[in-house]
Amino acid sequence: MDLFITYLEMGENNFKQLLKDRKENFKYLYEQLKTLMPKYGERVLETTSGNKISIASTLTAFDEKVFKPNNINATFFGSYLFHRRVSGVRVCNTSNGKLSKISGSEFINYGTHANDYPSLPYFTSAASIGQTKREIDIYITRLEEAFQHFSAQDPFGIMKKNAELLELMEENAIEEVKAEDKEVSKDMKAAKQQKDPSKPADTFAQIGAAFGSGDQNQAEQQDDQKKEEAKK
Question: 122 and 11, same structural domain?
């Protein structure tokens, strides 16, 4: 129903334009990756004949140069890009012969669509509907920054820096909470001093004493009146 409403709101012409833009963006993304990947010893896999949305690129050179020497799973590359606000990148890596059992079926290198796919690891980039060329340019820029970062043999540097920044932010947040707690405690203490719970009790006692003294005075007046009447 939501999709139907979206189509109605969008209209036929706008929808067809989005499809046309997506096809153009796919070509644009493909060309940008073809230019970028050889700079770092990688290549774009030729899978475009049957897939007009996703483009696969190798990470085999980086696996030998960076990932394996640092004991890093290649999927960390996807985590790094996600940390850089790049979503949708899927990294497929070898399972090293480990079997995955899904509904009674066994798979090696599950997720790569083939048990013995030769170009592992690889990552995929998608040209989805609604995407713009500007977004592709931003993606390519951040992708190249990632390759440069890993080429510098410092795969954990930026993660460590960001972790330290996050820790500092959390410490500041804790200090702010403590300061707020002190202010609240101070205000509560001041309010308690202004309105001591013992004071209402004293007030009630005073009121009771006043009523009591009033009753006593009235009784004395009645006694005096009776004495005067007796004398008469």
Answer: yes
